[in-house]
């Protein structure tokens, strides 16, 4: 069997499915049997990441570690975690396992740097913005980025929460408001740095302006599987 | 935490994702944490079910049993298997586990019988048709059904294989050809009795004519979780 991708998921559940769909789309296959095996543990009751970062709500770390232990026992051979904010705990998670654990922020920023993308806005949860996960890495590589101002960031977060509550239309309208404002001040590129954002913007046309963190993570994972399966790694 | 749904999946991988999406859609939730936890083991290299039934290709049973053992060890509390043809081995799988294991054919036929749906065509893999999984149950309940003739069944199977190979457009055109022919001879209702068929027909308008086996299975599973979580079962 091919190498198994393990998904530390549920943050949120739709983002986990989005990642699984993107694994299929990025795998060249002509029948079921050529696809990559996936074990997805989608536990949506992992405490809210942004709440913990902003107001010291319950830490999600213990539950994330529990999911990681399930994935290890089940035989996962490469871990992905389709939630940007959860990567605030990435170092602790990675240190606790011997399985390769890909980093969504790293692979997304690698794309931005290698394709010399500048003038980019970070669309993410308020938790992700607060932690500086993206800003630190982009600053290091001299990428010219902006973050939404406080009012805009409030709207971005409201959009993400609207999506999570099932209000897809309102989520889209809110996100579109902020994107339009940012375009008016000259922003040309947008990091979809929360795994709900590709879902919120799924009906949106001009995809070349958007850097899909989930998509980058999945491409890296599929590439890893193919390399290992071909015996070249 | 809520009760965990385990998905014996990968047959095919897109059908597994479809089932997970339908779990979300059928769960009343206003935030991540209110959703149902899911462990999906999507192993697409499980040998082809129809090939085994029709021409004695490798049996999928051992690999399905292996996935079931992974789900048990990981803590799944209710099993669903979003593949109709795989239910040919349902009795052996169910007998091997103490975890409740819902049956896609049973829940779908229960809906047909309870809603007094007649004049129904069974759209399924040639494997499912050959085993008589749906026919036996519908006959027992005096439901008036038809199966496609041999030429039509060949086209249905070609459609399913086209979808699995990634040729979504051709899959739709082939399936639509058979549906149109069946409508011309007076068929009014269609069982989407292969988990790829809701995906093939996802752009199709008149959903009330279609009985979605995946959807029925998921509704039953979500209902089971809600009952158990409310302490009434």
What tags apply to this protein structure?
alpha/beta; Rossmann fold; 51% helix; three-stranded parallel beta sheet; homodimer; 11% strand; 233 residues
Structure description:
2 copies of one chain form a homodimer. Chain A is of the alpha/beta class and 233 residues long. Chain A folds into 2 domains: 5-103 and 215-229, Rossmann fold, CATH 3.40.50.1860; 105-213, Rossmann fold, CATH 3.40.50. In chain A, 51% of the residues lie in helices and 11% in strands. Chain A contains 11 helices and 7 strands. In chain A, the strands form 2 sheets. The first copy, chain A, has a 4-stranded parallel sheet. Chain A has a 3-stranded parallel sheet with strand order 2-1-3, with helices on both faces. In chain A, strand 6 (189-192), helix 10 (197-200) and strand 7 form a beta-alpha-beta unit. The longest helix of chain A is centred in the last third of the chain and has 17 residues, at 168-184. Chain A is globular and about 50 Å long. Chain A starts with a strand and ends with a helix. The interface between A and B is large, with 41 and 41 residues. Strand 2 (38-42) of chain A pairs antiparallel with strand 2 (38-42) of chain B, so a sheet runs across the interface.
